[in-house]
Automatic annotation (TrEMBL):
Protein name: Putative tRNA (cytidine(32)/guanosine(34)-2'-O)-methyltransferase
Record GO biological process: cytoplasmic translation; tRNA nucleoside ribose methylation
Domain Ribosomal RNA methyltransferase FtsJ: 21-209
Subunit structure as annotated in this protein's UniProt entry: Interacts with WDR6; the interaction is direct, and required for 2'-O-methylation of position 34 in substrate tRNAs.
Entry keywords, A to Z: Cytoplasm, Methyltransferase, S-adenosyl-L-methionine, Transferase, tRNA processing
Enzyme class: transferase
HAMAP family per the UniProt record, alphabetical: RNA_methyltr_E (MF_01547), RNA_methyltr_E_TRM7 (MF_03162)
Length: 319
């Protein structure tokens, strides 16, 4: 929940506080369910990257509320919800919390243990990194998080199940779509109304989980593990689909996002080098002319272009 005045004017921010949701993101899952009927027939659900718990709240209210309406004599299956996050989260009624890493096999095993050996019907993930403002970096980290969520989903989701996750719609988003299409027959990119238009976030709704024939779920994801030669080269068949990412360049090279002093070498004097192609008619050309001639502080400073004489200016006073 945001603290700035802009967030306080947001209608979903206010509604979330009025209705008791932990974050405004609860409305995103509610609107996705309204469009895709995500909760129909769901008895076992997993919420990845759950903190602070708004999506777990939605699962608890919707699934457990439906369970309470079913009479005991009808033999309805018990609803079980598991929330996973690295951070601790305040307890929720009917939600089992696991404080663990979604890139670990032990986390997937613990989820299945809470379901008494049964796979999940629905897996949702609203996780996102702490954005840096560098869009390429943010999109890549979010893609990593999405693939990590997909990886653990292949361990816990039943065939025909549904997977919902946040995605950043960058220039390479089609690569993620093609990766998801390998495991799900239906992949849809949806943007709820409660998601701000200024945000590049959206949500992929992946329905009808159908892993490729011969696929064996594993945590040897090369996008999350730097041991390419050890793990990645041993994968065969459909497990080799994920393309590894490699950062090129020595760590001692210059950082393109850092500011360095002009004097790089201690024993060498800095020498100015003019640009190869100076700008043509820059917008600051007149300001540079006024400053060069000490005219910035004068009230009678000319307002025309330095290449234009005052005699050519129709607004100039006649002498």
């Amino acid at each position: 929940m945001g603290r700035s005045s802009k967030d306080k004017r947001d209608i979903y921010y206010r509604l979330a506080k009025e209705e008791g949701w932990r974050a405004r993101s609860a409305f995103k899952l509610l609107q996705l369910d309204h469009e895709f009927n995500l909760f129909t027939g769901v008895n076992r659900a997993v919420d990845l990257c759950a903190a602070p718990g708004s999506w777990s709240q939605v699962l608890s209210r919707k699934l457990r509320g439906r369970e309470e309406k079913v009479e005991k004599g009808e033999g309805g299956e018990e609803v079980k919800i598991v929330a996973v996050d690295l951070q601790a989260m305040a307890p929720l009624p009917g939600v089992t919390q696991i404080q663990g890493d979604i890139t670990k096999v032990s986390t997937a095993q613990e989820i299945i243990r809470h379901f008494e050996g049964q796979p999940a019907d629905l897996v949702v993930c609203d996780g996102a990194p702490d954005v840096t403002g560098l869009h390429d970096v943010d999109e890549y980290i979010q893609a990593q998080l999405l693939l990590a969520a997909l990886n653990i989903t292949t361990h816990v989701l039943k065939p025909g199940g549904t997977f919902v996750a946040k995605i950043f719609r960058g220039k390479d988003v089609t690569l993620l779509y093609s990766q998801l299409k390998i495991f799900f027959s239906g992949v849809t990119c949806a943007k709820p109304r409660s998601s701000r238009n200024s945000s590049i976030e959206a949500f992929v709704v992946c329905q009808n989980y159908q892993p490729p024939e011969g696929y064996v779920p594993n945590m040897s994801n090369p996008l999350l593990d730097h041991s390419y030669d050890v793990d990645f080269n041993q994968l065969e068949g459909p497990n080799r689909v994920i393309v590894p990412f490699l950062a090129c360049g020595d760590l001692s090279a210059f950082d393109s996002d850092r500011t360095y002093p002009l004097q790089l070498d201690a024993g060498k004097q800095y020498q100015y080098t003019p640009p190869t192609q100076p700008p043509i008619h820059p917008p600051y050309q007149q300001a540079c002319h006024l400053r060069k001639n000490n005219l910035l502080s004068r009230e009678d400073a000319p307002t025309d272009c330095p290449n234009q004489s005052r005699d050519q200016d129709p607004s100039a006073e006649s002498s």
